[in-house]
Amino acid sequence: MRIPFNRFLVFIGVLVVLSAIAGSGLAQGDSGQCPALVKQALTELGQNCDALDRNSACYGYNRVDATFADAIAEDFFHEPADRAGLAQLQSLATAPLDEAKEYWGIAVLNVQANIPNTLPGQAVTFIMLGDTEVENAVPADEVVEPGEPINLTTSVAANLRSSPSANANVVGSLPSGSPLVADGKSADGEWLRIVYAGGPAWVNTSVVSAESDINALQVISKQNRSPMQAFYFRTAIGDTQCNEAPSLLVVQGPNSVKVNINANGADITIGSTIVLRILPGNIVQLMVVSGGATLGGLVVPAGFTVTAPLSPDGKTLAGDWGSFRPLSQEELDDLQTLENIPSNLLHYPIVIPTADEIQAALELFSQGATSTNALTLGAAARQVKCDGFKLTSPLGAWGQVSTTFYWDAAIGATSYRLHTPEGTVETTNTNATVNLSGTNVDNLSWSVDAMVGDQIACTAGPVTLIRDISLKSTPVPGPTSPAPVCGNYICEAGETYYTCSLDCYFP
User: Fold this and answer.
1) Hey, CA dihedral for 252, 461, 384, 288, is it positive or negative?
2) Does residue 492 fall inside a structural domain?
3) What is the signed CA dihedral for 291, 294, 299, 304, rounded to 10 degrees?
4) Of 18, 280, 281, 301, which sits 20 to 30 A from 425 (CA to CA)?
5) What is the CATH number of the domain that holds 169?
6) Do 125 and 256 reside in the same domain of the chain?
7) Are residues 159 and 101 in the same domain?
8) Rounded distance, CA 209 to CA 471, Å?
9) Sign of torsion, CA 497 501 502 505?
10) Which of 394, 397, 404 has its CA nearest to residue 471?
11) Of 219, 253, 273, which residue is a domain's last?
């Protein structure tokens, strides 16, 4: 997930002070056979829950208690490696560490959330550790699991929007003839959900043609969510028997995909790994391990944490998110257990940020950010030298049909992804040329991801360019050219050319 550094500048004065303050730890001290039991539990977890289907739960390690919407057989979801569909599930509870009984409960859930079916196999992974409980908060009449996707083709240049509304912001544009795949529709049937730049977006039905009946698609809305996309959770309050056995809820989204979830009434957007727990005083704490999390207007980067008060029943927030600060060294040490979660259960391995990396992020915040050097850290940030990575050209206006974009290298990156309204270009170079003839926007934004394999290390930008209107009235051949697209403006046809005012462009 892309986390603009300049959003944090208001916090710098507080962060510099708080960076030296130690937060509360997850546990104190070690005890007996705890480390060996935790190691055994995590090893068996990888075997028990391998290849878990989407919208499913797995009994990971002793002990897990579950309740279901309907009566079940006595041996259903009874022992490690058992699995169940989330649509059946009402709640899951994992047991705290008990060395005598050799218990340390673990459960794994793969939640579809708002991930389109056109991203097969992708899901949000929940890992419940220790004394943790999760309860489904999506009513049965609001549950939806998208069906089979259908193929589309844009019939004209098409804008893609962040939600199914002409009032929603444009997240990208595609030229006529572009292939798309839709897996859902809006309640009014006017918009289709597709995938763009790794995440969900919406396109109007008027600008696409479909290979099959779009009426067969499921309605997707804020009122129609997948099982467990909204949930209530609790964790134990207080110390566990040893540092290696915390009671936590780990939530990991797919790499480079923004995912929306609702935890105890709080809307959270992630493209990363976060950890949730309950603190004394009925306080919910969110810790970001990699990528970032967005909570309303607050963006929390890796290595930082925020808290919020809960209502007496723990099911809604009783105040705003606050206490934004870096994770303490004690918290970082206690989270180290998460690095031992088997990688076959994850979208990418969990790597806990170090105090030095968090300090480096603080220094970047304090240096400020402009539209030309705004920087975002991703899951692979520790493998790349991101501080010299920035966009270099163009930074002002655009208007040429073929525009070459340039950026300074991120040392250690294996490739780059250039994002423009025309789509994404992957390259190993530090420049790429894009044909912008079909771009129907005045303000063009572009950004570049520095990649390590298929993981984002850091993102430079976005930079917004203003269309150079002096290039819009350039005569072009008329009879042999396609008619220009003008929106609310007028293009006048001459004998051999069109003369266009203000906002016309030529497909």
Assistant:
1) negative
2) yes
3) -50
4) 301
5) 2.30.30.40
6) yes
7) no
8) 32
9) negative
10) 397
11) 219
Tell me the two tokens of residue 397.
Answer: 């206006």
Residues 235 and 106 in one domain: yes
* Domain count across the chain: 4
> Domain limits at 431?
370-470
What one-letter code names the amino acid at 219? V
What is the CA angle 40-46-49, rounded to 5? 125
Residues 201 and 229 placed together within one structural domain of the fold:
no
Alpha helix locations (H) across 181-294?
Answer: none
Residue 361 lies in a domain: no
Is it true that the peptide bond before 83 is cis, omega within 30 degrees of 0?
no
**Cα dihedral 357, 358, 361, 363 sign:** negative
Inter-residue long-range contacts of 423-432, CB under 8 Å, 24+ positions, other chains counted = 423/172, 423/174, 423/197, 424/197, 430/406, 431/404, 431/405, 431/406, 431/407, 432/404, 432/405
